[in-house]
Amino acid sequence: MLARVILGLLDLSPMTGYEVKRHCDTTIRYFWQADKAQIYRTLSQLTGDGLAAVETAPGVGGPARQVHHITDRGREVLNDWLTSRLDPQPERDVFLARLFFSGGLPEPELAELLATRRKTAESLLVELEDMRRSAPDPADRRARLRLATLDHGIAQVRTELDWLTEVEKELT
Amino acid sequence: MLARVILGLLDLSPMTGYEVKRHCDTTIRYFWQADKAQIYRTLSQLTGDGLAAVETAPGVGGPARQVHHITDRGREVLNDWLTSRLDPQPERDVFLARLFFSGGLPEPELAELLATRRKTAESLLVELEDMRRSAPDPADRRARLRLATLDHGIAQVRTELDWLTEVEKELT
DNA sequence: CGCCACTAGTAGACAAGTCCACTAGTCTGG
DNA sequence: CCAGACTAGTGGACTTGTCTACTAGTGGCG
Prior knowledge:
Two copies of one chain form a homodimer. Chain A is mainly α. Chain A has two domains: 2-83, Arc Repressor Mutant, subunit A, CATH 1.10.10; 94-170, no CATH class. The first copy, chain A, has seven helices and two strands. In chain A, a hairpin with a 7-residue loop joins strand 1 and strand 2. In chain A, helix 1 (2-12) packs across helix 4 (72-83) and helix 2 (17-25) packs across helix 3. The longest helix of chain A is centred in the C-terminal third of the chain and has 30 residues, at 141-170. The first copy, chain A, binds a DNA duplex through residues 1-2, 16-19, 21, 34-38, 40-42, 59-66, 90.
């Protein structure tokens, strides 16, 4: 999966492994996070498969940069992925799991669990709304779609906050 | 992680690996799915660590059943997990990733992607609402919490459907 | 009787991801 | 001038999870 996501990023513009990592930590963080080592491994796998090509560029203020470009084969594979059957992925939510099994916990511990979740949700919301505000007016469909995924995140977080309020109310 | 979830299930009632799998496919499916082989491996790891104990029971209409109970040590570990720091888990949403990179796709393909997502969301919603309806009135906090996680799922799916409507409208 | 479905569990190869430590160059602030 | 931050990348051990295929017992249906 990571391979596909990286192909997608390379399709937007050529970049180094470091930059891929930065994207995973910033622009696409709310729907895709990845380990640094894994990114570099995947990149060399992509070049090995001929889906990406490397060009060593002199580093401006730093070590040399290995800039990865997507190849035509890569673009094909990316396209195949984008148009392939969308099968539902396995759900796995640690927070919900904990909550589900937290029936026997004393009340303050439970309240803290919910409070922690609220805090991370709130800071995520602020961050996403900042991204939304600072995003340029969508020029093309590409940009509109990217904003749409952002809106998805915002809507989900808002729903979660409302739900948290409900649960907190109900448990007192 | 799976180990903790299984401990949680065993804490609700002793069960076989097969039954753990069934839970992952039904009751807790909307927040935790797991591979059969992994479940059995994890179970034997749990007994190896003394967090669970096995008792072989004669199978009623089938092979012998290896019923796993949670031990006191297991209950401790479960409790430690439930009260430990809740750190945000890595987000990974294949659908959003695809949508994010689908800017260059022809319109019908894009529409199909959204339609597929809508279909799975709708059927999930039906399923969750069925679960909700057939759930007994919550007797204790345990049951209320379990219903709350279900409500979380329902709220998220509804939000997603609304969002889908927005996106579909915007893209025509 | 033979086949299928369901219950219950085992085994092994493999893929993907995480964690940690490490090299190395540059730039900035105290 | 030196420490720390930032850029850029490598290497290896380890964990977790997936996929596939297998054994085995029972019950029901045609």
